Amino acid sequence: MTPLLEAHGIEKSYGHVEALRGADFSLSAGEVVALIGDNGAGKSTLVKILSGVEAPDAGRILVDGNPVRFESVEQARRSGIETVHQDLALCADLTPAANFFLGREVLRSGLLGRLGFLDNAAMRARARQECERLGVRLKSDSVAVSTLSGGQRQGVAVARAVTWARRVVFMDEPTAALGVVQTGRVLDLIRTVRDSGVAVVLITHNMQDVKAVADRIEVLRLGRRAARFSGADVSMEELVGAMTGALEADLAPPDAAGADAASEKTSEPGSADGEQKR
Ligand SMILES: Nc1ncnc2c1ncn2[C@@H]1O[C@H](COP(=O)(O)OP(=O)(O)OP(=O)(O)O)[C@@H](O)[C@H]1O
Ligand SMILES: [Mg+2]
Description:
The chain is an alpha/beta fold.
């Protein structure tokens, strides 16, 4: 089956810093993929490129097998892609509802709507309802996002992305500011979203969360895909090993007999770049 979203050989530098050095990624409909890697591995950069925030220096992006070039966030959104950015990307001075409906404002019905009047009550109600699904209770609809707690803000960003995503939701550390209960709700929501056919990419440093929800795991290291694992039976040692590079060393034995054993373990043709599939 053609993947929903693919990235091949993505390169991105900021001045002298090579954030991505030929990164590959793929995603199918209705799966949760955990994208993991050490600090600075390039995860957020890859997400920004796949959600239209940044343009790659090189590489190809395909949606449903067709090459695309996201010139803007709006364009990625038109492909059904929504993102919870690591920095949340909320407008601090606006209310949660205004953030929710930024660029998607709901007009009043009838003549007032045709004159451009907004249906603020409907937008407030919808934003409140979506936030409450995540256990985020907003004391007032009319306060600016800047006055909310870190966890509430994170809830607003997650709820907003999930509300609008038709095909893919990227969540870059969506639970970093959340307590145990709210984290559990976000993980439940990820499963619900996946079951509705939308693919979810979860970026987190919490390996428990990864093991709890991921159907597949992609590991990024030094700006490239270092490994990928399918199934939940991957051990913590393997994940950490792939993130730090220790596993590569394990799988690069000095003699030929060892090399055979290693290729059995990776068992994927063309995995010379260290990519593994289980
Ligand atoms: N706007 C920028 N300007 C300069 N360097 C940047 C910029 N954005 C990212 N980088 C650099 O690119 C590299 C990859 O950063 P990125 O934020 O993608 O990593 P990450 O995997 O998301 O890390 P973390 O787990 O800490 O969030 C880092 O070395 C970072 O310093
Ligand atoms: Mg990041």
